[in-house]
Write a structure and sequence with these properties.
The chain is of the alpha+beta class. 45% of the residues lie in helices and 9% in strands. A four-stranded antiparallel sheet has the order 4-5-3-6, with helices on one face. A two-stranded antiparallel ribbon has the order 1-2.
Length: 265
C-alpha cells in the first residue's frame, strides 16, 4: 500500500535542506529495509545494489583543507586554523584510518568495545564530530577525552571550527534559524555543516554531473551512497575515484552490496 501511494506520487515531495544541502525524497525517507524491492522502470529485472562511502563524514573531515576551496568556499576562514595540521603525526594517522575506511574499527579498539559493538562505536564517534563543546554527560566526556588523547591536533582543530561565530562565518546567520526565522548561535554545528555540505556537493554537483555527462543511467543517491544496478557498480566507482584524483586526493574505500534487514542475525 505504501509503495503504491509513493509510486502514484501521493507521498514525499522532493526537497533540499538548507543545512547540509542534502536531497530528501522517497528513497531517503522510506525505511531502508524496502530498498531490495526497488527497481528502475526501464530495467525491472536488474538486481540493485548500494555503493557506500566508508566512514564518509570522517573521510571528508580528513580532506577538508583540500576540499574547502573547491566545494565549500564559504568556509575559507577555517583554513588558517588548519595550518600545519597535515604535518602532525596524529593527523596523518587520522587521515590514513579515514581514507582506508578503518576509523570506526580503530575507535572500537581505543574504547575497548567488542567487535559486535561497532555500531555503538560509530555512533559515539559521530557524536564527537557533531557534539557541543561543553559536554556534561559522563560517557560523552570520556569519549571526547579518549579522542583528544588519540588525535590531539585533530581535536584541537575541531574545537577551533566549532568556536567560530557569525563574525567569521557570516552565512550561518541564514542557516541556524529557529521556527520563527530568528538566528540561533549553534556554533557547535559548524563542523557538521561543513562536512555535510562537502559530502552533498561532491556527490550531487561533482559525481552526479559527471555521471549524467557520461550517459550513465539507472542510479539514485541516498545521501552518502548510490543505489544502482549491478552492471553500473564499477562504472560509478571508477568515476567517484576519478573525481577525487582530479583534486589530488586519495579516494575513500567504496563498499557495495545490499543488506537484507529481514534476516535475523
Amino acid at each position: 500500500m505504501l509503495m503504491n501511494l509513493a509510486n502514484d506520487g501521493y507521498l514525499f515531495r522532493e526537497s533540499v535542506d538548507k543545512f547540509g544541502e542534502r536531497v530528501h525524497y522517497l528513497a531517503t525517507r522510506i525505511w531502508k529495509g524496502v530498498r531490495p524491492f526497488y527497481y528502475f522502470e526501464n530495467s525491472s529485472q536488474s538486481k540493485l545494489t548500494e555503493i557506500d562511502f566508508s566512514n564518509s563524514q570522517p573521510y571528508f573531515a580528513s580532506k577538508a583543507v583540500t576540499l574547502v576551496p573547491v566545494l565549500v568556499p564559504e568556509f575559507l576562514p577555517i583554513l588558517p586554523l588548519l595550518e600545519n595540521l597535515s604535518n602532525k603525526e596524529d593527523f596523518k594517522k587520522f587521515d590514513q584510518l579515514c581514507t582506508k575506511g578503518r576509523i570506526y574499527d580503530h575507535w572500537v579498539t581505543i574504547r575497548g568495545y567488542k567487535p559486535e559493538q561497532r555500531n555503538k562505536a560509530k555512533s559515539e564517534f559521530i557524536k564527537i564530530l557533531y557534539g557541543k563543546l561543553d559536554q556534561k554527560v559522563d560517557y560523552a566526556i570520556k569519549a571526547y577525552n579518549a579522542f583528544e588523547k588519540e588525535f590531539p591536533s585533530v581535536a584541537e582543530a575541531f574545537v577551533k571550527i566549532k568556536s567560530l561565530t557569525e563574525r567569521e562565518l557570516p552565512f550561518i546567520k541564514e542557516v541556524y534559524l529557529d521556527k520563527d526565522g530568528s538566528f540561533i548561535p549553534k556554533y557547535h554545528c559548524n563542523l557538521s555543516l561543513l562536512l555535510q555540505r562537502c559530502e552533498s556537493r561532491f556527490i550531487i554537483k561533482t559525481v552526479c554531473d559527471r555521471l549524467f555527462k557520461d550517459g550513465v543511467q539507472n542510479f539514485i543517491t541516498i545521501h552518502d551512497s548510490f543505489l544502482t544496478t549491478e552492471e553500473n557498480v564499477q562504472v560509478i566507482k571508477n568515476i567517484i575515484a576519478s573525481e577525487f584524483r582530479k583534486l589530488s586526493i586519495e579516494p575513500p574505500v567504496l563498499k557495495d552490496g545490499m543488506k537484507d534487514l529481514f534476516v535475523k542475525k
